[in-house]
Amino acid sequence: MKEELDPFKIAQQQLDDAAEIMKLDKTAHALLREPMRTVTVNFPAKMRDGTVKTFTGFRVLYNNARGPGKGGIRFHPEEKLDTVKALSAWMTWKCSLANIPFGGAKGGVICDPKSMNAVELENVSRGFIRAVSSFVGPYIDVPAPDVYTNSQVMAWMLDEYEKIYRKNEPSFITGKPVELGGSEGRFDSTALGGMYVLREAAKLLKLDLKKCKIAIQGFGNAGEFAFKIATELAGAKVVAISDSRGGVYSEKGLDFDKLAQAKEKTGSVQGFEKAEKITNEELLQMDVDVLIPAALENQITAANADKVRAKLVLELANGPVTPEADKILFERKILDMPDFLVNSGGVIVSYFEWAQDRAGYFWSEQEVNQKLEKVVTKSFADMVKTQKKYGESGRRIPPRMGAYIVALERVAYAMKLRGWY
Ligand code: GLU
Questions:
Q1: Within 10 A of 228 (CB to CB), how many other CB atoms are there?
Q2: Cα 420 to chain center, whole Å?
Q3: For the CA of 318, the nearest atom of ligand 1
Q4: pLDDT by residue (tens digit) across 44-87?
Q5: What atom of ligand 1 comes closest to residue 350's alpha carbon?
Q6: CB of 298 closer than 6 A to ligand 1?
Q7: What does the pLDDT look like over 200-254, one tens digit per residue?
Q8: Does 154 sit in the ligand 1 pocket, CB within 6 Å?
Q9: Is-contact 82 8, C-beta < 8 A?
Q10: Is 106 a catalytic residue?
């Protein structure tokens, strides 16, 4: 039988598995199986040659029982509504596990940012916000960056929103430049949060990070900073890294600055000549202690999970491990830290940004990082405690299920308090 790779079906499968373990109320379960609101928009944007192209975008509000929707906007040529729906569900569990006052949402535009110039990117960013403007807002649904969007894109989106509503409204969107009401520490917060999880998970496995070999799939915002932090702060050795074109490997460990320079010059980490070239598939199967998938969904599947050699998998991307692969990793006693814990640092600092914007009072980077560490460490402890609780009553469950149960209990309780069931 071919494995299910539709991200939304996967998200529903994970929810169903957790609901069965925790015996979630059936009405709450049914409410949580589908997004509350799905918006598809088609909008015009002017291209560099003067022609006007029609773009399709989505904004999905999965659940807002615990607060306004929250989640990034992706620009991707292969973007699909089902992917955005899955990501909005994962945002709901992410915000709930972190115990921040948001529901979950996600957006996406079908476009190829790599082939667009700055003017085209700006026109698409503004056009999308015009199209979804009545569905987003600081108390409705708060966007942020995600795959192939960044703080500049957030700045254009903020400007467009403020033009429409004719007022200053920085808490409408997060991940903005600091100069426009962004938060200190937001830029590398996803990776930093992931590194706090790495530290806690290493304690569980009694791994000495200074002796650890790490492989990272992906050299986007999260992957790049994970590399930097893992080597500079944790003293670990990153021996393999890749991007969409392929990867490089060096037994001695890769040098961050030299690698970043090569990427800058050639457009790919493969431009780094002092290391052996490898494929993305080979990277996942390297003989390392820690494997960090930091790129896209569905990377570790039923087809390759039995070839993973790491002791610890840290899901910095959203949805990199399929449910079938989950089972295989669990049976093989490979500790797999779930995405909505590992990459929660981004949205946690987004919450700090939203709170600072609303208060009009800004914190130092050190304050932000200290608060982030507290929240992530607490989420980790909540997950492990729940896992243990089920283990003691005779049902051993993987970390992902522990995290799901914590998140679902909170969302279901908020819905109950509101009288939704
Ligand atoms: N895109 C990030 C995520 O998937 C951040 C979302 C946010 O800050 O709202 O968690």
A1: 18
A2: 28
A3: 4
A4: 999 999 999 999 999 999 999 999 999 999 999 999 999 999 99
A5: 8
A6: no
A7: 999 999 999 999 999 999 998 899 999 999 999 889 999 999 999 999 999 999 9
A8: no
A9: yes
A10: yes
Task: Tell me the H-state helices in 133-269.
Answer: 151-165, 189-205, 221-232, 256-266
The finding on whether 92 has its CB within 6 A of some atom of ligand 1 is: no
Regarding the beta carbon of 183 and ligand 1, being less than 6 Å apart is answered no
Confidence of residue 2 (pLDDT cuts 50, 70, 90): confident
Is the pTM higher than 0.85? The answer reads yes
Q: Output the DSSP codes for 279-290.
A: -HHHHHT-S-SE
Give the Å distances, CA to CA, from 124 to 35, 67, 121, 351: 25, 28, 5, 26
Both tokens assigned to 280:
């993305």
Band of the pLDDT at 153, cuts 50, 70, 90? very high
31 forms beta bridges with none
Q: Which pair of tokens denotes residue 197?
A: 């999880």
**What domains appear along the chain, each with residue ranges and CATH number?**
35-170 (3.40.50.10860), 189-337 (3.40.50.720)
